[in-house]
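Input for the complex:
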Amino acid sequence: MTNSSSPTGSRTSGAIAVRDLRCDYGPNTFRLEVDGFEVAAGERVALVGPSGCGKSTLVQALAGILAPRRGVVSVDGVELGALDERGRRRFRLTRLGLVFQDLELIDYLDGLDNVLLSRRLAPGGRVSNADRARARDLAGRLGIEHLLGRLPAELSGGERQRLAVCRALATEPSVCLADEPTGALDRVNADAVVDLLVDEVARLGTTLVMVTHDERVLDRFDRVVDGAAAFRGITEEPVR
Amino acid sequence: MNGLVYLTWNYLRRRPGPSALLAACLGIALLLPAVTHVLTSGFEDALRERSDATPLVLGAAGPPLDLTLAGLYFSRDGLEPLTTGLARRIGAREDLLAVPLDLEFTTRGRALVGTVPEYFEERGIVARTGHLPFVAGEVVLGAALARELELGVDDHLFSDPPDHLDLSRPSALKLRVCGVLHPTRSADDRAAFVTLETCWVLHGLAHGHDDVTTGTVDPSLILGQSDEEVRMSNAFIPYNEITPQNRATFHLHTDPDVLPLSCVLVFPRTAKAATLLKAETNIERMYGPVQVADTRAELDELLDLVLGLRRLLDGVALVLLGATAALGALVLGLSMKLRTAELRTLDRLGSSARTVALLQGLQIAFIAAVALACAGLVLGALLVLDPDLTLLL
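Predicted:
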């Protein structure tokens, strides 16, 4: 499996390792406990399971959005627990590709600027011609190059989500995390988006962890992990 | 371009209406006190400069501020006339220079000032084109007035008819433009100047006409004749223009000492001369029911009023600025609420926690910069397009 290069240029593994993780989500209402979870570099893993089992919480922990209360979360060779909030944000911005169901595009930026958003938000905030060319190339492979000049409001739901996928992969990240990216799409569009995402991460050698409820797309992944069996998502009622 | 600057620029660019409205509100709030300050400062400077150049004005008894404004700015409201004889008595003193002014008439609504050549010497005014008025019937125009009326040397203009019901006065006198003055950025730029003799014709106290004794005049116009005088019908019209050909026929019909004047500008050679004249005129009443106004003292009172007005306008502008800032804060607050999804996206992508504050700050900075630039441009344009703006006050 080919490893991708990070935005900083250093070769990274893209592997994920979680051990003895405990994350609290919300004001003591949800707790996730994971004894062990590993994804090899370049592997495509689907996370399935009933709502509330902790799939999305795990993805947020892997993205560094949630700080682990206990345990080890290692992504792309970086131990996230050792980073402070600023470090985790920078890691997320520069090393990860993220696609969320409700991850809105910025409505006042056209398609190309949305794709290049992570580049603009990164330290320095410079976008080179090479970045633009890479973004156009990727958009061409995703079939949305002709939409790059349009605002999100002028796009359909499927086109918007393909644009979000393009944004996630534009930095050629080592790891891509997707949380139900097709949840709001119809079947045809959902299939197209998953196909494009999976094909593109395979081409880039990017590790993919995707939360999904759609059993029809599971055969596109190297491995399927059932969250109900692998983690413990515990919802606690607040004490009055 | 920095990422957040780029985001802010695009945000404002895609929402030009609200951004422009905010910038306009802020710009007006900034412009108002700036314009007030510039105008009142210019006004104050212009007043002080003119009063410093003309320390005393002698005129009929009445409000000294009216007399001061008449002497300095050719205002003729409520001004009782003086006599040329008095001006001659004052002018006979060696410790001062007396410059008589006749402010009774206008041309095209602007002051038509009758004066003597010493006026221009004392003010340091010279003709940019042509020459100063030497003889009756010539007029020299201030620079702004010439530009406004689009007149130059050898053009003509009429005096405004002073009183249609007074048949003893000429309805209007045709004047030849003999010159245009250099701009001085003072009231002189917007006035026209003639000799005192021209004013006497306008008063109806001097006139010129065909010789009624040589038999060249229609006999039906002669109402009566004696050895000393010839009484003519009103249908006999004197000349309404003074030309080289008819100038010699112009003559006075009254005692030269009682010819009217509006006021006399007094340029004392020493402080002692000024004090003496004030004492003799205002205390000892040596020259009758007239007064000498100290222009500096009078304008200081006026400036107190102007400065009070400026403080009031500054206060109003401050309230306006506060209200605009509060409105701007409300609009920005609401816009941030509308941008919650966008800010959440930026947060999840890994943008800095300071992003929200920076976006807000940049948005305010952009709008403030545009407002400031617009206010500066408008103010600059006002001053460049009309450098005499303060004179309009």
